[in-house]
UniProtKB/TrEMBL annotation:
Keywords: Dioxygenase, Metal-binding, Oxidoreductase, Zinc. The keyword Manganese does not apply. The lineage of its organism: Bacteria, Pseudomonadati, Pseudomonadota, Betaproteobacteria, Burkholderiales. Its cofactor is Zn(2+). This is Dioxygenase. InterPro entries: Extradiol_dOase_DODA, Xdiol_dOase_suB. PANTHER family: 4,5-DOPA DIOXYGENASE EXTRADIOL-LIKE PROTEIN (PTHR30096). One of its GO terms (molecular function) is dioxygenase activity. Residues 36-241 form the Extradiol ring-cleavage dioxygenase class III enzyme subunit B domain. The keyword Transmembrane does not apply. It comes from Hydrogenophaga electricum. Belongs to the DODA-type extradiol aromatic ring-opening dioxygenase family.
Length: 274
């Protein structure tokens, strides 16, 4: 198998599990296009620790880490297997890159992982594990975290940064159909930076992009995009996972960093020789 692409996915509100909008079908289509990975590694802002921790449960539980939503959300389960051996490999890579990593044997999947996976791999038939997001990241260190994880993409692991392209919960309007201009302006700026490989701009976007601090009053939902970019590197083709803007201010676009078609062709050729 050729090197897998890496993904950034906007997981939006927990209601994304029940209300897929346009991003959900786009993810499902992408899941059928990608070569089948050995496992998916998700970096999510809903698991934050001092240093990176890698989940190694063989059967991770579905964590409903939110409150006040439709009871149907709490009945959802995403029964994917874990990947303990790959978790150990990931921790070793992080340690080698200077990150004080450890393994958590019982951690489940937070909604930043299982909600988008509901759409990407609808049958829950690909193992999923997580790396926690360190609490004191900068644009540079988030990118370096992605670089430390990058070898996994050559080993059949699909690296996913799951966050939100914009994340100002103070301005969310659940039934709003009008898009806030600043959310569109910020997401358009990010799209241009991604598609033109301007990774230095991505690392500094909170300070440099228009309305960066309004789009992200706190940066934790932005850093997974930088992690995904770091795991891929700047010299790769990119494309947009169209998501639109939900609830007035939550931009749902995602990105594919890397060539999907070439990897698929390689996987098909490999299967033909078996």
């Amino acid at each position: 198998m050729n090197r897998l692409p890496t993904l950034f996915i906007s997981h939006g509100a927990p209601t994304f599990a029940l209300e897929p909008g346009i991003a959900g079908p786009a993810l499902t289509a992408l899941g059928t296009e990608l070569p089948r990975p050995k496992a998916v590694l998700v970096v999510s802002p809903h698991w934050m620790t001092t240093g990176p921790v890698v989940s190694a449960s063989p059967a991770p539980e579905t964590i409903h880490d939110f409150g006040g939503f439709d009871p149907a959300l709490y009945r959802l389960r995403y029964p994917a297997a874990g990947a303990p051996a790959l978790a150990e490999r990931t921790a070793a890579l992080l340690e080698a890159a200077g990150w004080p990593a450890r393994v958590h044997p019982g951690r489940g999947l937070d909604h930043g992982a299982w909600v988008p996976m509901l759409h990407l791999y609808t049958q829950a038939d690909v193992p999923v594990f997580q790396v926690s997001l360190p609490v004191r990241l900068t644009g540079e260190s988030a990118y370096a975290l992605g670089q430390a994880l990058a070898p996994l993409a050559d080993e059949g692991v699909l690296i996913v940064g799951s966050g939100s392209l914009t994340h100002n919960l103070y301005e969310v309007a659940w039934h709003e159909t009008t898009t806030a201009a600043y959310a569109r302006e910020f997401s358009d700026w990010i799209r241009d930076a991604v598609l033109h490989g301007r990774h230095a701009a991505l690392r500094n976007a909170i300070d440099e992009a228009p309305s960066g601090h309004r789009a992200h009053p706190t940066p934790e939902h932005y850093w997974p995009l930088v992690v995904a970019a770091g795991a891929a590197g700047a010299d790769v083709p990119t494309r947009v996972i169209e998501g639109g803007i939900e609830h007035g201010v939550l931009a749902m676009d995602g990105y594919v960093f890397g060539a999907v078609a070439a990897a698929t062709a390689s996987a098909d050729a490999e299967a033909a020789t078996v």
